[in-house]
Request: fold
Amino acid sequence: MCCTPVAPIVFLHGTAASPRQWRELISHLPHQFEIFTLDLPDYGVHEIRSAPRSLSQEAQTLVHRLRGLGQPFHLVGHSYGGALALRIAIEWPSLVRSLTMFEPAMFHLLRDGHPIERQMHADIASVEQRLREADAAGAPEVGVAHFIDFWNGPGTFAAYAPETRQKVTAKLPMILANFAALDLETWPLADCARVSSPTLGVFGEHSPLLVQHLMRLVAGAMGAAKVLQVSAAGHMLPVTHTAAAAKMLNTHILAAEAHAARPKPRVA
Reply:
């Protein structure tokens, strides 16, 4: 039996990143995959900043583009891109052949949870507040440094080359826009059960506990989702642990293709 996937794979990058973040991971995948790496809304080089909008509205913008593929697709997202991928799979399940999320940043699901979850939400809200205060004070690099170190560990931003610090700091408007979009989400955790495609959630061993918990929380609401941990990895595992991430993704997609190829039971 041939295992060559018939559905394309769509990759959605994270906040302050670009489609280039997927290059090395993709290099570990079989060449027969048809792959699309998309810029998120407003991230394209020639795009103009739009009015504030929610993550759900951004998902709708992406779906308008993805319908052009003319067939279901495997959807892969990291962080903010993972949150977008989840929202697309919830609202347009027939379009998604499989879903893979690397630490989706769906923070609002913690907002009204139990006390520990509410504290987790307060922690990430304080990161956003620090960013906005630094921007207002004319010291954007201070806020961006706190943001990067929150996700990747103390001293990460300082260890960047000067030109890298400058490039990341220039993404502050997009970072703030992504936070604002997430803040506007209000849908309940129970909506995750509307995802009908095979789902894989992946998190890093050393990632913030907030996203480790979110990954398990979302997967648990789906019922049949699989969750895997990447040893010694952090939040940027699709970039830093590409071989391991690609192996997990390849296995998941081939299994989803095999599932889709099974004969459907006849209705009497």
